[in-house]
Amino acid sequence: MNLRTRIAIWSNVFNISVLLFFAGGMYLGITHSVDEGINNRLYSTAEATYYIVEKPISSGNLVIASRDFENILRAFLGFSGAEGYVRIVRYDGKVISSTQNVFFQDLKLDYEDLKVLANNREILRDYPAPEGANEKRVRVIFYPIVVDNKLLAYIEVASSLARLENIQNSILQILLIIIPVTIAMLNIGGVIIFNRGLKPLSILSKELKNISAKDPKKFPQWDKDDEFRELFQSINDMLDRFNKACMQTAQFSADASHELRTPLTIIKGLIEVALRSERTVEEYQDILVSILEEIERMVRIVEDLLLISKSEAGEVLIEKKEINIKTLLTELCEHLSLFANEKNIILNCCDIEDITIMADALRLRQVFTNLIDNAIKYNKENGKVSVYTRRENNGLCIYVEDTGIGIKEEDIPHIFDRFFRADKSRKREIGGAGLGLSICKWIIEGHNGYISVDSHYGIGTTFKVWLPIS
Ligand SMILES: Nc1ncnc2c1ncn2[C@@H]1O[C@H](COP(=O)(O)OP(=O)(O)OP(=O)(O)O)[C@@H](O)[C@H]1O
Ligand SMILES: [Mg+2]
Q: With contact defined as beta carbons under 8 Å apart, do 418 and 365 qualify?
């Protein structure tokens, strides 16, 4: 069952229920008030008649001719005999007085009824109308005339229910026309509103069908200022992200293959050279050392790639433990100073706060190894590298500052991208694969910190790592 049919069914069920509830309420309300009016009229006529006839009856001399009785009622009550009649009946059933046009010649009350009347209580009852009458029912009130606890007579006032029945019939007829017409109109209106409302959705599904991963074209904008504008915008943003992710994945695979191909080509070349002619043991050893260097380089790249893919899949956990930053950085500097000395670079690591923070020691070591390694690699002869800490915003800032070659302004936004190297053509001995900083960024963000860079081309670079203390 499609959405359109489901909404149509539900809205019809709802509309019909509301209409029936409304119509039922209206029918009952009007009927009740007309019914009340008839009862009130019966009571007031009976009561007024009582005051006219009570005295003559109790004195035992009431005999009024029908015509006179009707005239009296007309004069006092404005009674019109068209819709009903009034008669006075003695306790034994003999009619003492009566207006004209009585509907029933004889409405005999049984013993139980007379007992009720003798207790000075009225009886209100509906009777089926006599045959041939316009109405179906007639309402009658029996009103007692009790003197000295004895029922002398009762007043019988009858009213035709034709007016009530007519009103009920009219309401039913009107509702029988109004309800289907209203439902038809609601359905027509509903179809129009539904079609107009769903138009953007059909455009959406048509456009989405045309989008493929190979040709991720731009989605149209929705120019009306409504909720769909936001939806279209969100889809466009999502597609942008999707395109970017697709391009990044493609780029990543291309870069990874490229990075691995270079050492493989070198290894292939070295082996070909070794096989071409017979060589001395020393020559073979040199070739094997070169091959080992290239293999080590490949192992590093593969390890980094593995770490990146695992981190993206959420498989690498940052295991935080209490670590002393001073111990970690001092040890690292001692280790790397050998490498710095080779290049006549001074590695200064003395202004470091003695503080313990919660962090993953292995991962932090990886971060600062890369930052200090970069500061040495991309430095100048007789340059300087300083590692120091400062307190900032409830956290600890660790700076790695160098007096090296610096980074061009246009390269700064890209240095944390995977495989990015500012100088693509630099010598292989210096360069890495360009994965170090992207791994650093992931590790620091995993510690709820951040990493930033400030660099001046030709002058030097400072990397800043902020880590929360608590
Ligand atoms: N201190 C620095 N001074 C100048 N340039 C830098 C510095 N640190 C990083 N860069 C530039 O940013 C690039 C990315 O650095 P990153 O550490 O990610 O890669 P890498 O050192 O080349 O290789 P890897 O770290 O994977 O061995 C470097 O290639 C270099 O061009
Ligand atoms: Mg590096």
A: no
Q: At what angle do helices 281-312 and 436-446 cross, to 10 degrees?
A: 40
End-to-end C-alpha distance for the chain, whole angstroms: 57
Q: Output phi, psi for 225, to 5 deg.
A: -90, 75
Number of domains in the chain: 3
Distance CA 340, CA 377 (A): 9
Q: What is the DSSP letter of 468?
A: E
Note whether 303 and 362 are same-domain residues: no
**Digit-coded pLDDT (tens) for 148-186:** 888 999 999 998 888 899 999 999 999 899 989 999 999
- Residue of 304, 374, 442 with the most ligand 1 atoms within 8 Å of its CB, for mutation: 374
pTM above 0.85, yes or no: no
Which residue has a Cα nearest atom 9 of ligand 1? 374
Condensed to tens digits (0 to 9), the pLDDT of residues 398-437 reads 999 999 999 999 999 999 998 888 876 655 556 678 899 9
CA–centroid distance, residue 455 to ligand 1 (Å): 12
Q: What is the CATH number of the domain that holds 272?
A: 1.10.287.130
